[in-house]
Structure formats: structure tokens, C-alpha cells
Amino acid sequence: MSGRRFLGEDQLFLLLSILIGILAGLAVVCFRMSIDALRWIFFGSGLLPPRQRVVLIPGAVGLLVAFLVVRFFPRVRGSGVNQTKAALYIYDGYIPGSTIVGKFITSALAIGSGQSLGPEDPSLQIGAGLASLIGRRLKLSRQNLRLIAPVGAAAGLAAAFNTPIAAVLFVIEEVIGRWSAGVLGAVVLAAVSSVVVERWFLGAEPLFRTPGYRLENLGELIAYAILGVAGGLAAMVFVKAIKFLRPWLKALPRWTQYLLPAIAGVLIGLIARHYPQVMGAGYDYMDQAMHDQYTWEVLGILAGLKILATVLSFSSGTPGGLFAPTLFIGAMVGGAVGGVERLLFPHFTGPLGAYALVGMGALFAGILRAPMTSVFLVLEISGNYAIILPVIISNALAYLISRSLQPTPIFDLLSRQDGLDLPSLEEDRERAVLRVEDAMRAPTAQVALRLEALPPPEALEGLPGEFFLAQDRSGYWGGMSKVKLLEVASDQASGADARAQELPHLHPDQSLDTAMRRIGDWPLLPVVHRADGNKLVGVVSLADILETYRKRGPALHELPEPAD
Amino acid sequence: MTIRLKIIDREYLLLAGLVVVIAAFFSLTTFAARAYHRKQDQFGESWYQRGEQVLKQSRPADAVEDFRNALAYSRDNDLYRLRLAQALMADRRPQEARSYLLSLWEKQPGDGTINLELARLAAMWDDRRQAVRYYHAAIYGVWPDEPTAHRWQIRFELSEYLLQRNTIHDTKDAQAELVALAAELPLQDAAAQTRLGTLLLRAGLNARALAAFRAALADQPNLMPALKGASEAAFRVAEYQTARHYLLPIVAQDPKDQSALEMLNLCELVFKLDPFARGLTSREQAHRALRDFHLALGRAQKCAAPVTAPASQPAWQTASPQDDLSTLLAQANSRKPRLSERVLASDPAVLESTMELAFRLEKASANCGPASLEDKALALLAQPSEVAR
User: Fold this and answer.
1) For a disulfide at A272, which of A54, A237, A339, A372, Cβ 3.0-4.6 Å?
2) Are both B286 and B374 inside the same structural domain?
3) Could you please report the per-residue DSSP string of A140-208?
4) Is residue B366 part of a domain?
5) Interface A:B, Cβ pairs < 8 A
6) What is the torsional sign of CA A509, A510, A515, A518?
7) Residue B214: which pLDDT band, with cuts at 50, 70 and 90?
């Protein structure tokens, strides 16, 4: 829409965020109901599927899903997070309408038929797609059209998990990568309205109801730290397995794409004949793990098998998300660590459910590399805030270990495997910020002079450069050309009252990016103390800034890992 | 102006269109969600009913699976959760049951049933502190139907748990629970009064036990467990007439009941041997006292050496240091020649001191092998009544 609007674009954007939130919430509710309905059709109403169907159904439905994906919806492969990022950074917020329909149908079929994938990332993409569609219809500006997709993504994710805070954080942390009042307001409004809709239809209870937790023995924190280490290692195994298998399968002839989801389905079915827990999102089994229903050996086996099943499903190109499997693996690893701890230290009183819950956060931090989101996700899905200390410890360790063993986060890895050069928000966060103090020089008498005590004109003539920093009587540091300085120096009587030209000031801790923006055409800028604006601590020129960027920019080994 | 109006119109139109789409989608979702929830409820209920059925058939493992399925369709359903926990307990998987119970407890800390199940778990693991805590929470908790009856039952269960632990501290706590229960239980409930009496007997509150059994018998005079309990309680409080009164119908109904027969015989002997029984002439008193003295002396003489009482023996049964058997024998032997029915009949003080000596001899000989029925009766006479103690 061009010209003047009845509503300003910002107000319209906020209003749309609410409407998008409602729409995304409705879509996610329908999506979740569809998955359940398909599961009932395929496997009946019991948690344990009939043995004769567990191999047949995932295989047969895998063929159908592959056909739909290859023929009609090629953009729906994968989780949906990268597709949303691509819409933001590459396609100006454009997500085709067919992607929404395709993602809905193929993901519901895949998850309902037992593929080891989750509904959250597809919900995120469905939300983003709906937002993009509405934004296009309303002809939003390019800037807002780009941002509307992440707003829808937050709404979709919030409704899928029933976790508004975690959804907002995830989208900020992983998709948009920056905080600003406008974006945050829109994302929050969308997330809240979608969660309201989801709760209206599916209930307000948290995803899991865990037994109460109280940290009675500080020694237990060591056990949670060990869980963090185990979580980091499990995350590394998971990501490495996808890193290896996915490009290998993608490199196979095109016709194999019709078969891969079916083969993955059959293999998962074979696993499910003995361990049906690995099928689908697995929330019921996570709940059971949190209620002490498995021994630590079984939990360990389930964690391993779920990694295998999810790697197979995901690498085969079956549409579906990684969030739920990540939580499943985390719950099982956490439960197993808790079980071993109970065996070794029976006086520790922490319930196994607490370990499973903390494990979820650890794997989320380790695999998806969204540390803040992982903390709030655990709190929101359990409604248990007493567990925050173990969650923070465990998540931090899992995150650090996973980062050191597998430097490229999974979403960056996937985007590079797909040939997309999306910005890595984790790498951006981690990249050292170059500051003014890195580029500034000491304020010597060659460049910084006091007007009250100028050297004789002959000496000034001999100074290199045509522009100097000059401090006037009030103590202000401004700029002055050599010509002007010579004038002041030759007329000492009036010179003392001369005023230096106003210059933008910098502080040592400010980024070089700020310095670049401020320096404009000035040859030099003063760097002054934050507590005393008259105290000159350095000078900086454009040449200094560029030289610093040249010398201290990212080394080659710090540049993003190339796609496999 | 026209252009601006057109823009506004278009914006309005698109937003209105979006709202209409959302309204339509909302209606559609409402319709679908109703059908979805109906189906979920249907599945949940059917699995729940199946679980109840197999649980009644004593197949807890199958019931666990059924209740789990039911719970999958209604994660917030506390009834399904509770039944799952109970099925797990019935399937001897207490650790798994505990977790569900704790999550239920978090939500309803005052619920009687949940507290009771947690108490039973704690009792099973012999975690006394938690067991007592949950039992008390169950007693004072919320019971939707028949709260009073539930509270009585739980107090009974708690008392039984404490008595089974068999320590002085636990017995004292059990006594307190039983005394509280005695004040609440209706006198007309013969079964409950009998159960109370039995526990009071185990707790050592014999007089209160007798009162409970009496209440039960007042309601159902021929209730055999109450008769047996009453006879034992009466016997313990040295009310041998009362004990005999309750023993006679027991023996009449089951003449082969050896324990009742022995108790009855002992009662009869106590009546025969007691020199202080009401209505006796002084001559008869002297006759009985002399017989008792010789009975005690005979048993003491059979004991070759002084015997140490076992540590577990109650204090009142243990002879004091001055009751050293040899000393007592010496005293008895020196008194024996001077004793006759005439002397005893003429001097009640001598009779009392002679009986005192006889009782002490009997006590000191308590561990000298199996006692005859007469010796047992004499020992009973020597035993101070509970009321006196």
C-alpha cells in the first residue's frame, strides 16, 4: 500500500501481529489435531502400536510423503527454521502459500505415521508462511514484510509448545538476531495471541506435569553438571550424524528421494517393534520418563535409538521438526544420568523427573544452540521454576561442550548443506566486537593542542597534518584547521577566547561501527573519558579504523565452515 | 482526497477480510476441536473402563497399560493418574507409582486418597517420618464421600503400622492414635470396636481394650473375635471372673480351643488358690495360703541355683536382688516349721507376709523350667493388676 494510510505502518504492523498470532494459533491447533487423528487412524488409540503395523505404515506413508514433497512441495523439506530465516534474509519475507499447505499435510502425515520428528518447527514455518501471505496481501513495506515472517514464526512456535516466552526468545535468538522495541512488541503480541488461541482449544496446562522438585543436597548440582556434559556429548553425536548422513543421502540420484522417507520409516518401524517409544514426537513417553517409568538402562537405550531414528527421518528429507526429538533425547539422557546417580548416591533425593526435565534443556542448548531459550523452555513446559539452578548449570555446560566439539550450529550446518548463506546468529554473537580503544592512538602534542598554550606559529607550521584537535578555554575538545590555529597562535590576546569547531565525541568502549558512523568527513575524532568529557584519552582517524579492521577482522579459520 | 479514501477503503477492506477469514477459521476449528475432544474423551474413558475391569480381575500389569493409554488422552485427569498409580502399586512397582502420586500431591496436597497412597508407599519403604506425615495428612485430608469412615480406617492403618514397628516410641504413638480413635468410633459398630480392641491389646492398653470388646459384645454378644479379645483383655487386667465369663461361651462353641481351655483352667485355679478372694472364712484363707506357700516352696526347691532373668522380661516379673532364690529359700525354710493353718487363721499379718514370701518365691523361680498350671496361677496372683500399677 502506498501513500498515506489510515493506520500508520507501525500501528498496522502491531495490529497484524495480533491477527497473525490468532491465525497461526488456529492453524497450529488444527495441525496438532490432524497429527493425532492420523495416528489414531494408522495405529489405533493405544499408546503401543500394533506390531504388524509399525513397519508397514511408516513405510507406506513415507512413500506418499516423498511423492508429495518431490512433486508438489519441494520447499517443505527439513524443519522450517532455516526456511523462515531464508525468507527474512534472502526472499524479502516471501514464503509461498503452497509451502504452508504442503508443510501442514506432509508433516502431519510423517509425524502421524511414526516418523521420528516433531510438530514444533513445522508449526513455526506454518506461522511464518501465514504471516508472509498476509503481509503480501496488505502490501507492507519491504522492511516490514521481512520482519512479518519471524513474527508469524514466533506465533507458530508459541502455540506448538504452549510457551510464549521461549518462542519469543527463540525467534529473537535464532531467527532475527537482534532486539528492538518494534520487533519485540510485534513478536510478543503474536506469541501471546497464538498461545491464547491454543489454550482456548487445547487447554492451559503445561506440556508436562512433573513431580515437585527441591534442591536439598548441593552435591546434586555436580550430578546436574555431569548431565550437562552428557547432554553436550549426546548433542555432538546427533549433530555429527546429521552432518554426515544428510549430504550423503542428498547426493544420491534424484529418484531415490521417492524412497528415502519410506526406507527411513521402515527402519524406524523395525526399531519400534521393540521400542515403540521412538515413533513420532514422543511426548507421552517423555512424560513417562519424567515419572520414573523406565530404568536407567532403558532410558539410555531409548536416547540412543531416538538419535538414530531422528537422524534417519530428518536426513531422508521427511518434513518434520527437530525440537520434539531433541527434548525426547534430552529427557532420556537426563533420566539415565539421574538413574545412575540414584544408584551411586542413594541419599540424593532429587526425583528422576527433574533430571529428565533438565536433560531436555541441556539437549536443547546443545543441539539447537539457543541457550536462553532452552532455560525458559524448560521452565514453561514444566511450570516448575524451582528447577532453574540445575537447568542453568546443565544447559551452560551442554552448550559449551557442544560448541567446542561441533563449532557450527545445526541450523547453520543445514543451511550451508542446502547452499544457503544465511547469517549465523551464534557466530555473530560470539564474534569479538572491535572497539574504539582497539583503533585509537595516544593524544600526543602533534595532534591535540590546548588553545591557551599553543606553541609559537613557527612550531605549528612544522606539525604534520592540516587538522588538529583543540581544547578551548571551557575544556571542550573540538577541531581546528592548521590555518585557523596559526591565526590563533599569532594573536595570543584574542586567541585564548577562540572556540574550537564542534566534533562528535567517541568513548573507548564504543564499537568501531559507531566510530565509522560518526567520523563522517572528519580527519580526526577525539576519544574522551565517559566520566569526564574534557579528558582526552585518545584520537582516532578513518585510517586508524580501517587499519584495525584489516588487522583484527576475522581470520580465515574463523570464517563460516563451508558446506559439505 | 479520493485517492486517500480509496486507500483507506482498501485497508479497511483487507483487514475486514482478514477478520472474516479468522472468524471462519475459528468456527471451523471450534467444530473440529469439539469432535477431537469428544473422540479423546471417548478413547480415554474406554481405556479407563478397560483398566478398571482388568484391575478387578487382578491383572495390574494390563491395567497399568490401559490407564497409561487413558492418561494419554487426558493428561490432566487426576482420576486416571491416581488409578494408574494404584495399578502400579498393585503391580509392585512402587517407585513408578510414587512419581505419579507426587505430581498429584503437588496439585492437591490436601487430598485424602493421594496422601493415603503416599503414606502406604512410605510405610512400605519404612520411612516412618514420611509415613506418619502422609497418614496424618490423609486423616485430616479431603474425602469426597464418607470422610469419617475413611478417617477411622486410616487411623487404624496408621496404628497398625506403628505397632508393627514394635518400638517403645512407636507403641506410644500408636496408643495416642488408638485413644483418639476410641473417642470417635461409634459404640454400635461391633466390627470396628473389635478391631480397636485388638489393636489396644497389642498396644498394651488392656483396660481400654476390654472396654472396646465389651462395646462390641454389647452390640453382638456372640461375636467370637470380640469374645476372645475380651477374655484376653480381662485376663491381662487380672479380672479373672470377667475373663471366665467370656471364656465359657468360647469353650462351649469350640471345646478344642486349647488356648481358651488353658486360660479357663488358669482362671479356675486362680479362684481356687486366691486366699484374698471375697467371702472366704479365715480358716479357708489360711488353708489356701498354706497350700500356696508349699506350692511356691516346692517349685523353688526344684531350682538348684539362682537364675538370671532374661533382659526382655518386664520389670515387674524380675526378682529384686534381695529376692535371690537361696535367700528366699532360707527365709521360707525357717518360716515353714512355724506355719500352720491355725497360726495363719489367727494372725492376718502372718498370712499376708507368708503370701508375700510365696509370691516372691514364685517370681524368683519364674525361669526354672516349665511351670505347672498351679504355679502359673500362683504367678498370676502375684502379678499386680494393671489398674493397681
Assistant:
1) A54
2) yes
3) --HHHHHHHHHHHHHHHHHHHHT-HHHHHHHIIIIII----HHHHHHHHHHHHHHHHHHHHHH-SS-S-
4) yes
5) 107
6) negative
7) very high
Q: Do B216 and B256 share a structural domain?
A: yes
DSSP A370-415: -HHHHHHHHHHHHT-GGGHHHHHHHHHHHHHHHHHHS-S-HHHHHH
Check if B176 contacts A (Cβ < 8 Å): no
Q: Tens digits of per-residue pLDDT, A105-136?
A: 999 999 999 999 999 989 999 999 999 999 88
Number of neighbours of residue A361 by Cβ within 10 angstroms: 34
> Best mutation site among A15, A29, A36, A45 for testing chain B: the one with the most B CBs within 10 Å?
A45
pLDDT tens digits, A219-240: 788 889 999 999 999 999 999 9
Cross-chain residue pair B36–A33, CB shorter than 8 Å:
yes
Q: CATH number for the domain including B239? A: 1.25.40.10
Chain A CA closest to residue B22 = A23
Same domain, B268 and B334: no
The whole-angstrom distance between A554's CA and the closest CA on chain B is 47
Per the domain annotation, does B102 fall within a domain? no
Instruction: Please give the Cα distance from B339 to B362 (Å, whole number).
Output: 18
**Among the partner residues A2, A12, A353, nearest to B99 by beta-carbon distance:** A353
Please report the DSSP string for A77-91 in residue order. Answer: -S-SHHHHHHHHHTS
User: Angle at CA B101, nearest 5°, toward B90 and B75?
Assistant: 100
Q: Are residues B228 and B288 in the same domain?
A: no
Cα–Cα distance measured from residue A133 to residue A145, given in angstroms and rounded to the nearest whole number = 10
Tally of structural domains, chain B: 2
Residue B338's domain spans which residues?
Answer: 282-307+317-382
Question: What are the structural domains of chain A?
Answer: 9-202 (1.10.3080.10), 220-422 (1.10.3080.10), 436-551 (3.10.580.10)
* B146 found inside a domain: no
ipTM of the complex: 0.80
